[in-house]
Amino acid sequence: MSGGVLFLDEPFRSLWAGQDPFVAVEALAGEIFRELEARRTLRTEVAGRGYFVKIHRGVGWAEIVKNLLSLRLPVLGAANEWRAIQRLSEIGVDSMHAVAYGLRGRNPGRQHSFIITEELTPTLSLEDFCLDWKKHPPELRLKRALIARVAEMARRMHRAGINHRDFYLCHFLLHLDPAPTADQFRLSLIDLHRAQLRGQLPRRWRDKDLAALYFSAVDIGLSRRDLLRFLAAYFACPLRQVLRDEAPLLSHLASETLRLQARFARKVAAGEMT
Where are the domains positioned within the chain? Predict the structure, then answer.
């Protein structure tokens, strides 16, 4: 298409034949998860199968400038998520499967874009899976296997120049069919709309991802030994070397967790977390 990008796989290739996909996607009905002026997220069904739809309508130049003045990169549309999904697939990190993607408009503040991914089911977020670990500790081998897998996924992602920016346990989905065991399970990384892709990941963004992950796991009953096991797997080198070379990271994990906890508390007090 002129002045844009369009990818359609089944069932949307047939469903939207002869239609303008950017009009058709706006007409999709389903359960709304987020409705903002510039973005809509919903779950829809086609032929009995679930799909998640994210529509971006352009954030406007005022929002772009506000983000840049705050030293934050604005999310302009669905392109980040589309590129991140493709890149993660290339490096062997399970994520979502996109069946439709479109972008049109050259003005960054007014671009119209969308991405549709298959619903991953049956799954459970790692946050929910670990919810009762304090009271009911998991089978030791399974816990260690999950720690090792999360570390491996993070390592591959970061070495490929990708940082997630919302790298929490809730964005890892554990597949439930077949039932996960220490010897066989599958994890998929989701919600990549804020992801950034570079040739090489700056240490600052690596540490921000790791701090977010640590914050989301700090209260699920993991021990210091579990944290050290994660770090050894993530850096793929002896623990003694990690402790010697990454002392600033360990300090950052503690301080950033306190900052995130304070921010979370403020959002709860303001009624933003329901």
Answer: 4-118, 123-269
